[in-house]
Write a structure and sequence with these properties.
Shape: elongated
Number of helices: 9
Largest sheet: 7 strands, mixed
Distance between the termini: 38 Å
Structural class: alpha/beta
Length: 361
């Protein structure tokens, strides 16, 4: 048996003991019902009087392994699979791996069954072995365990810095997703005569792992025209941390717009800003789209009714157009996911902790 294979007690349902047998002594095999002289002899732990020859024991394991493969759990394309068992680290410090078989490309004509580890603590899947065939895992996201662990540490540090920033600035003005932040290089409004004041602004930022955090940064507020201003250096600092979940404009914007024209909460513009897309050019995986939708709901950026209504509109608008058949199917999948959230449905299985973007050919 392979080094990484399941233990015999896991496959056969009980533990077997083995003892050496003299080459000159015969014994009766209770499995094949023959007198045998093979080495060693196996005994089930529950009944030491039952003896099984090595050949029958090997056949029993092979049959159990075949059944295990036939009952392999299907993995949808786009699932994140980690590479590097030694580099895997859980957030809670625990590391208990369970070996099992999984079926790749379950919807294709020729699905492939592979052996993977699943971490009992975090649920991540890890390739069993030191090498893997990229062709076998085509359409799956292979992520280095070491790189993922390093990224988790960096994100944890970012979160700690963000929390420390909020502790230093406990009183800040929350910037809503409908608010406008104007980028500026000078500390004044569009009109030098306007009355401005320094404030601490809490800006919601969508990070690359699809978690939303509030970053507190110094900003300006114009009492005269009711506008918020953000220095270019602060804007670039926030941009490096993720996507700013508010309307970002430059000062020239207000030359042709005298008021906030898009103050009504628009699900389409907000989801698009968060990166939600079903186009082939963007080619987001299903798990990525679901993570974005979940982030919008979990952080109260949109209500469940607003998301469902928006997806219904997209499906209704594009139904019957052959060029948009794939997009409609994706919207339907996403609608089913959102509908099933908090109802014990499939949505509960998409708690993606880390999603690393890769270029797609």
């Amino acid at each position: 048996m392979k080094k990484n294979a399941k233990k015999s007690e896991d496959l056969l349902g009980e533990k077997y003991q083995k003892e050496p047998n003299s080459e000159h002594e015969f014994f009766y095999c209770n499995k094949c019902k023959k007198n045998r002289r093979t080495n060693p002899i196996y005994y089930p732990e529950s009944d030491a009087s039952v003896s099984i020859c090595a050949e029958c024991y090997s056949k029993m394991l092979a049959t159990a392994m075949d059944n295990e493969r036939k009952n392999a759990e299907p993995l949808p394309e786009g699932t994140i699979i980690y590479f590097g068992k030694k580099g895997h680290k859980c957030n809670d410090g625990k590391k208990e791996l369970e070996y099992g078989y999984y079926k790749l490309h379950p919807d294709s004509e020729n699905p492939v069954t592979v052996a993977l580890y699943r971490c009992k603590s975090c649920g991540n899947l890890i390739i069993a072995g030191n090498k893997y065939n990229p062709i076998t895992y085509h359409h799956y996201k292979i992520v280095s365990s070491k790189q993922a662990a390093l990224k988790v540490q960096q994100e944890k540090l970012q979160t700690e810095l963000s929390e420390r920033s909020q502790m230093l600035h406990p009183k800040y003005l929350p910037i809503a997703t409908t608010d406008f932040l104007t980028r500026t290089t000078i500390k004044r409004c569009v009109s030098a005569q306007h009355d401005i004041e320094d404030i601490q602004a809490g800006v919601k930022v969508l990070r690359k792992d699809y978690t939303v955090v509030t970053e507190v940064v110094p900003a300006l507020y114009c009492k005269t025209c009711n506008k918020y201003y953000l220095l270019e250096t602060e804007y670039l600092s926030l941009k490096n941390k993720g996507i700013l979940l508010c309307n970002i404009v430059e000062q020239k914007y207000w030359v042709s717009h005298t008021k906030n024209e898009f103050f009504i909460r628009n699900p389409e513009s907000l989801l698009h800003k968060m990166g939600y897309n079903v186009s082939r050019s963007t080619n987001l995986y299903q798990s990525e789209r679901h993570a974005i939708l979940r982030a919008a709901l979990d952080n109260n950026l949109l209500t469940k009714a607003e998301v469902l209504s928006h997806l219904d509109y997209l499906i209704r608008r594009s139904q019957g157009q052959s060029a948009l058949t794939e997009a409609v199917n994706k919207w339907k999948q996403d609608r089913e996911f959102v509908y099933g959230l908090n109802k014990g449905g499939q949505g509960d299985y998409y708690r993606a902790r880390t999603i690393i973007h890769k270029s797609r050919r």
